[in-house]
Amino acid sequence: MGSGIYMERIKRTFKKLTIKKSFALLILLFLLLDIFLCLATAGLLQLLPGKYYALSSPLIVCLYSALCLASAACLFYKCKLEEPVRLIKEAAARIGRQDLDFRLSYDSADEMGELCRNVESMRLALEDNYHLLWSQAEEKKRINAAFAHDMRTPLTIIKGYLEFQELSAGSLSPKDLQKQAAVMKKHLARMENYIEAMNSLATPDGIRAIPSLIRPRKLEEELFRTAAMLCQRLHKSFIPESQLPGSPLSADPEIISRVLDNILSNAAAHASCTVTLRLSLKQGALLAEVSDDGPGFTTAALEKGCDPFFTEARDNGHQGLGLYTSCLLCLAHHGSLTLANAPEGGARVAASFLLFQDPKAPQKAGD
């Protein structure tokens, strides 16, 4: 047992030596062994007749030298090269198959150990790169799906007006037709903006708020009109409430409209009878609260409702992107999106949008 421990220590010490020192040590040891064997054999050969000794002595020296050199080379390869070379070949083969689910480990302080650690570092870098590429590809899919989701509301509004005009053919005044045409034109322009943004956007971090001075009354009118149309299509009542001042606000109307389109669509779909939209200012931000008298959010929805692709059984046909997209847009406007259940029942979604001091120079909260 003691000899086994002693040999194990020798092996560990030998593995810590550099390749150059290991090779020199083995050559020295086998050279000493060669000299010892030659001297021992020479003593035995002296017992032979002189002519046999003269012939055998050089042959024995050459034979021992060749055997010792071959043994030194084999032992060197076995102890210092065989295992790391095998590990590196296996790692290269798996990397070639794009199989990175492994770990290359070789406990040695020599150059081969360092080479194995470098190969492992390369594997980790490739693995991180594959994960990054995969996440970027998934994120692009999410962005494309999110924009497709955002296209639904403008299409719904346009479809609603067209159906209304079809049912009311001949009874609408030119003024009403002109007003409805202007609304549909605006939603078509919004769809064009969505398409342009989708072509230029690579990640959610690329979403940027572009503030401009907007009149509160005009913003109210547009948001309330959209909400009323969405509720009317689903035979729900709409209650508008506003406490906005009369002075202009610096914000991005496109982001605000997209967020509320998503929230109002969800509220109208889940409301029993009524949807309410409240607009107000709070701590330098525009606050939009949408509530409905439906069943409210489940515990899972309150925790994960803003996660991408979160859906529940009642959301058949939905991809779970509306609230996720709205959350991204609120963050781009340095605001937030919160989900809650109202004390009196029903769901409540609050979206805040930080108002900018200078439309040309957006600032984060706390600046």
From TrEMBL:
Enzyme category, top tier: transferase
Membrane topology term: Multi-pass membrane protein
Transmembrane residue ranges: 52-77
InterPro entries: 2C_sensor_his_kinase, HAMP_dom, HATPase_C_sf, HATPase_dom, His_kinase_dom, HisK_dim/P_dom, HisK_dim/P_sf
The enzyme's E.C. designation: 2.7.13.3
Entry-linked SMART domains: HAMP, HATPase_c, HisKA
PROSITE patterns assigned: HAMP (PS50885), HIS_KIN (PS50109)
Compartments where located: Cell membrane
Highest taxon above the source species: Bacteria
Entry-linked CDD domains: HAMP, HisKA
HAMP domain location: 84-131
One cellular-component annotation, GO: plasma membrane
Domain Histidine kinase: 146-357
Catalysed reaction, written as an equation: ATP + protein L-histidine = ADP + protein N-phospho-L-histidine
Keywords tagged on the record: ATP-binding, Cell membrane, Kinase, Membrane, Nucleotide-binding, Phosphoprotein, Transferase, Transmembrane, Transmembrane helix, Two-component regulatory system
Molecular function in Gene Ontology: ATP binding; phosphorelay sensor kinase activity
Annotated protein name in UniProt: histidine kinase
Provenance organism: Eisenbergiella massiliensis
